[in-house]
Amino acid sequence: MKKLKASRLAALMLILVLLCGLTAAARADVATLGIYFCGKRVAEDGTETIVRLDGKFSVTQNGEEVGTIQAGKETITLPGTERVRIAPLPETVSPDWDLTKAYCEVYPEAGGTTTVSVVVDLLQEGTSAPAPTAEPAAVSVQDEDDTEEGYAEDEDGEETGAETGDEEEESYAAVPSGPVTTPTLPPFDASVLAPTPEPEWHALSAGNGSISVYAYHDQNSNGLAGDKEKPVSGVTVCLLTESGEAVTAVTTDGNGLAQFAGLPQGNYRIKAMLPTGWAFSKKGSGEPYASLFAFTVDSEAVSDAFTVNDGEIATPGIGLSKLLHVSGTCWFESSKVDGLFDKDEPGLGGVRIELKGEKNGLVYETMSDENGNFYIDRVQPAAYKLVVHAPDGMMFTRAPSKNGRKTVISKDGAVTGARRLDLNDNESKEKQYVGFTWAGQVTGICFQDANYNGIYDEGDLPMPGVKITAIKQAKDEECAVTYSAEDGTYTLPCLRGNTYKMRAVLPDDGSDFTCTVSDPLGNHFKARPGRRENFWNDFVLANSETRVMNVGAIYPASVVGYVYMDNDFSGTRDKKEKTVSGYLVKLLDEAGNTVATDKTSVKGKYELTEVPPGKYSLSVTALKDYAFTRLGEGNVILNKTLGEGYSETFSLGLGENKTGMDIGMIRPGTVRGSVFADRNDNGIRDDGENGLTGVTVRLMGEEGEAFSAEIGEDGNYLFDAVMPGTYTLEYTLPDNAVFARNTSGGNTISGEKTGSSAPFEMKSGIEVDGPVCGALTLGRIEGIAWMDHNGDGIRTEDEEEAEGMTVTLTPSRDVLEEITVTTGADGTFALEALRPDDYTLTVSCPTNYVMSRTDNLKLPLTAGKTEQSVQLPVAMGAEWTSQEVGTVIPAGVSGQLWLDENNNGLFDTGEQTPAGYEVVVTDDRTGRVFDTLYTDESGRFATAGMIPGKFTLSFAMDENTIAPKDGSSDFTEQNGKLVLPGIELGEDEDKAGLLLGIVRYTAIGGNVWIDRGNSVETLGGTQVSLKDDSGTVLRTITTGENGAFRFDKLMPGTYQLDAVVPEGCVIIEPGDRRLNGDQVSVMTDTVNREGSSDPINLKMAQDQLKMNIGCVLPGRMGDFCWLDSDGDGLQGMDEPGIPGVKITLMRDGNVVAETVTDQYGFYRFNDLYPAVYTLTVTPPGQVKPTKQRSDIRLIASVLEETNEAVCESIEIQVESDKANYNADLGFVCRRAGELPPGIGEGKKQKWTDSSNSED
């Protein structure tokens, strides 16, 4: 009885404590408490700065003071894990700080260290700390030892779990180490920690109602109890009336249940008090055990009211979620910067890390330890940003390109990076690796280039406000940007080794880029009209490199002046003199390049703008009929010929505006004209006919020659500044030239060597055009013919002249006549006074002779021919002189080519003599091809136009040709050719009966294709083997993505192809409906993925390249072999599977495959050819097939009913790329109570780990 009373008293005390919201210490474990104390300063621009503060705090637990802590320097050991109150000691803290937020409550965890971060604000001037208020609230803290199962690692340390999170870059103010607490306001009522008086229990009348409370881990956070969600024990559940009066309390058992029975009908509530590490999940509805509690991180809560009816069981639920953590490692990469944390790379300590809630306002902060590790605990399920701050001189490592322990942040050009972590899935996030490396940078100066040399020189002024941007060139991704300072300098920090496109944008103040130079420290940004930006592409920066990039700019100068008519020839612009509008003025640099141009306005003004500093001159052309006036204050231009003018050189500085650069003109008389080369001999100047050089034109006045000019390529002449008087133009032709035909609209000058125009009068300011004058030079052909008995093309003293060679030149124009000459005894010929035309040149040798070598001729003639006609365009003045044309009695060469099919070197009867093969005849003397011969249908080749000399016959061998063995062939292999060298021919000699044997490799090949139902595609990954007639495998090829295979360098013989297609495919069978004219498969013997072709009879040089192999996607079949306990022919949910049943797959009476059911009764056949199958089943002797049902085929048996020991199924269709998992095998016991062996003895199946389902 005493023991019973003591037990009841202990239960009563437990209920009292739980109802009052206090958790008594259940263990003797201790906890350690530390405080991180800091203050926040806010600048006028809103920038926040965190500073560490000194001060002491008092620590109270259970209403008693435990001790004091020097913040940031000491820790204190707590006697238990009950709620703790901390309060600052104001006399130990600087009076500049508002301590309102320094009063906090925490719940320490047993066996670990709890660090509380306290952040206070700076007092405003003239204010004091506000008076504290009551009712402190609980805070979130970091428990360094509260860990949870995380992601698994494979042997290489790669994460096998999946996390989501988008990396992004943000700027954050500095915050202290440790999770930031939610502060409470003073004063603090210590009585809330004191023991609570015993509550009054409310006794209820007896009834028939019951309550079954179920506490469970709500893994999917839907507020409903799922079949796979695990129960949670240790949750204390107190039953309350609707008005909140306590009735009784129960703790959930190992099944997560708390039962209340004998309750009267009415409305109730429950109060739930959670064990450590758990929080409420989500409120649910509509199903048994739907959670009555909404999300909160508090460890206890009271539900809404629910109804208990008489005789019924109410089923409220408590859905719970685990509190989470985030952990990881910071490491340093010095040489191998690949974004992967290797085992030999050191951890990086002292890295500041924050975890910021996106919506819940929570902020956690820590520093990586000496090994680079960090751990943030007590994290609520929510979306956060993991914010990491790079140490000085470092930057985040690059994004990894392969698997491993990858960095989660790889931001360029920034010292702070962030990654989004979504903890709403109730999973802690571990292995958050963050890599760092030494930072590279680009620095330089932006300057005003006073001497326009593209180099920053001493004395050049700075150029502030230039925007500099680094862009990753391959991705066109901007990664860093800055502006040049007042002194012109700039720095782009935190750049990793890469190839960049550097962008520079000048201020909008009229400036422009200076010239570009090759010097690495010079300006590399080219000026563009109307644009303030440009780029430096292919800018390579090595890892941790500091590279200098200077940007030069200028303020352009200008030149201003007026153009006018200086009628009084004074060299000064008067108000009465007219200005010239639309007049072009050019500005030239020292090299003569045009820098700027402008046309004068209606007032005669021109402005040459956007001019870099430097030395320049003006270049102008006088208006038609004008020249430039004398130099003076109103004219800076000097006269050149043809109306051109120029100024003396002058200098321009940065931004200089040079005025007074006026230009004056006067109007003289002018004579102009041209002499054209009449290249087509039509008397008219056509497009493209320029001047006839060498013609002299003179302007003859009353007193003799006034001016003269020699015609150049353009044919033009100009005499300006001509005085009044009477003149004539005189034209003198060069040797071998004649005036063109006199034609209306064309040439008007005639004469033998000199021609003149009619006299004409010149007056002031007028312009005279000379008459049209055309001329042309004539062509000629001349040479000698001789008997070249040795055929060398070189005439010697003992070789006589050839009489009777005819040379004919036939014109294409009717106005010209044909010219024919026949050589006499001296052998000479000449065709002269040839006007331009497209002629046909015909050369006929004396009877029974051919032309000898033509190597020394300029005429386009060919050796070895008796008569030949060639096209000969004769351009104006073209000449062929000293043409020595030899003639000789011809020789001949002939032979035959065959394929040495048995590779014995002999020309055997029946061996192929193919047509179309090329044999080249090379002249040994010149090394040039003399003739090219082609075999006829009998393999014969011949030429009858040979000349004396040494020749070589050759046949070019490709990669599939080899030389035959020694035997019948006259040719031998040399440097990739079959060659018959040194064939020496004399005049009228014939070499016949030459034999050329070759051995040609032959190929077998094709493509592997797959019919996917709606398309036919090539198939890679197929192993194709080539076997000889003995069955020996010669070669094996695995096809690539294009499905092609080819076996080269094969000799004639009998071969066979074997193929093994990839898993998941089967070779198409002969006669399959998919085979048609376009889809061919040579596989005639097939078994699922394997197949063989018929023998292939391969002949030499007859490739077999359409040996295609087809396949289709296989099907799958299988299902469940079960004991039909109720004998209804349908598969019930609780009916067990039968293991160890032998199943044979049959097709067309043949065995295809065999298997046995697994421990659960399942079976499967994979990679089946699309067809109709049956099953032959040998079940245990204790069972026979259950009844057949056709009404619900999905869960009915496919077996025919029988009492035999072996049973058969109905026909089962397997389709391509589909699974037929409806072939269930149902059995009933032959005798009641006699079960087949092994039934129900299999291990409990883990459905979540099942790997059987593929579809």
Detailed description of the structure:
The protein is mostly beta strands. It folds into 9 domains: 32-122, Immunoglobulin-like; 209-321, Immunoglobulin-like (Sandwich); 324-438, Immunoglobulin-like (Sandwich), CATH 2.60.40; 440-554, Immunoglobulin-like; 558-666, Sandwich (Immunoglobulin-like), CATH 2.60.40.10; 669-777, Immunoglobulins (Immunoglobulin-like), CATH 2.60.40; 779-888, Sandwich (Immunoglobulin-like); 891-990, Immunoglobulin-like (Sandwich); and more. The chain is 1% helix and 44% strand. The chain is built from 1 helix and 97 strands. Strands 1, 2, 5, 7, 9 and 10 form a 6-stranded mixed sheet that branches. Strands 40, 41, 43, 45, 46 and 47 form a 6-stranded antiparallel sheet that branches. Strands 79, 80, 82, 84, 85 and 86 form a 6-stranded antiparallel sheet that branches. The longest helix is centred in the N-terminal third of the chain and has 18 residues, at 2-19. The protein starts with a helix and ends in a 26-residue tail after the last strand. This is Cna protein B-type domain-containing protein. It comes from Aristaeella lactis.
Q: Keywords, please?
A:
single chain; 1255 residues; mainly beta; Immunoglobulin-like; 6-stranded mixed β-sheet; 6-stranded antiparallel β-sheet; flat; disordered N terminus; disordered C terminus
Q: Which CATH C-level class of the largest domain is it?
A: Mainly Beta
CATH architecture of the largest domain: Sandwich
Spans of at least 5 consecutive residues with low confidence: 1-28, 129-197, 1245-1255
- Total number of β-strand segments? 97
Characterize the overall form.
flat
Structural class: mainly beta
Number of helices: 1
Q: What's the N-to-C terminus distance?
A: 65 Å
CATH topology of the largest domain: Immunoglobulin-like
Q: Strand content of the residues, in percent?
A: 35-45%
How many individual domains? Answer: 9
Q: If you average the pLDDT, what whole number results?
A: 86
**Helix content range of the residues, please?**
under 10%
Radius of gyration from the CA trace?
53 Å
Main β-sheet: number of strands, strand sense, barrel status? 6 strands, mixed
